[in-house]
C-alpha cells in the first residue's frame, strides 16, 4: 500500500538526487552510471531513454534488461531496512539501487560495490 507511492515515483525525478549525492562526495556521474548498469543491465543509451521517458521506478525495473546475478551479495541496512530481509521484489530492487548509490557516495572502492 504505502509502497505504491514509491513505485509510482518517476526515476528521472530521483536520478538528479543520486548524481548530487555522489558528486558531493567526490564521485562522478560516470561511476554512478557504472553502478546502475551493473545492477540493471541498462547501457548508456537505454538509461538515458528511461530518464527522458520519465518512467516510474516500477517500469524502470520491469524494463531492465537483466538484474545482475550477484545482487544477492548486496547486504546491509538502507533506509532502516536490512536489504536481504526485504520480501517484496520491487522494493528489494529499489533498495539495492539505494544501497549501491550510498556505498558509492561513502567512497567504497568500485570493485567492492560491484561485488567483484
Automatic annotation (TrEMBL):
Protein name listed in UniProt: DUF2200 family protein
Q: Which domain of life is it from?
A: Bacteria
InterPro entries for this protein: SP1917_dom_sf, UCP033199
Stored Pfam families:
DUF2200 (PF09966)
Amino acid at each position: 500500500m504505502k509502497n505504491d507511492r514509491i513505485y509510482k515515483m518517476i526515476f528521472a525525478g530521483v536520478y538528479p538526487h543520486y548524481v548530487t549525492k555522489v558528486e558531493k562526495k567526490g564521485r562522478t556521474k560516470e561511476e554512478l552510471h557504472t553502478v546502475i548498469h551493473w545492477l540493471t543491465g541498462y547501457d548508456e543509451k537505454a538509461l538515458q531513454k528511461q530518464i527522458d521517458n520519465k518512467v516510474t521506478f516500477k517500469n524502470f525495473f520491469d524494463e531492465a534488461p537483466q538484474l545482475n546475478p550477484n545482487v544477492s551479495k548486496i547486504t546491509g541496512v538502507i533506509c532502516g531496512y536490512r536489504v536481504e530481509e526485504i520480501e517484496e521484489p520491487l522494493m528489494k530492487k529499489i533498495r539495492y539501487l539505494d544501497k549501491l548509490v550510498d556505498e558509492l557516495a561513502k567512497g567504497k572502492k568500485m570493485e567492492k560495490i560491484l561485488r567483484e
